[in-house]
Amino acid sequence: MNTENILKELGFKATRSSGAGGQHVNKTSSKVELSFNLENSLALSENEKELLKSKLSSKLTKENILLLFCEETRSQHRNKEIVIKRFVSVLKAGLIIPKKRRKTKPSYGALKRGLESKKRASAKKDLRKKPKLD
Q: What are the boundaries of the region Disordered (predicted)?
């Protein structure tokens, strides 16, 4: 994954933010919307695109466009930086291929120690019982 080429393919749109902020919110466009077209990306290989489609399916639109928003700060520039960092982390997390789990068995020593501890616990509980006077 070439991050520099991917960042060139991003689309940005600034809109008015919601929430607290008084008149500042009503007159500035500080909310940043990032859009990335997964289908038409030249920076990603076909394998990477398929992997991202499967892992990010809940975050993609029907046209396979990834949309991210940020309206955390009052600064449009700071929101843009935050949403770019978030986008890169989402892509990196989506491209991680999990290792296949191999089934393992407990070692002989572990089995032996487990049985010994069971025997000790059983003996301890036997000592707590009242003796039989038959």
A: 102-134
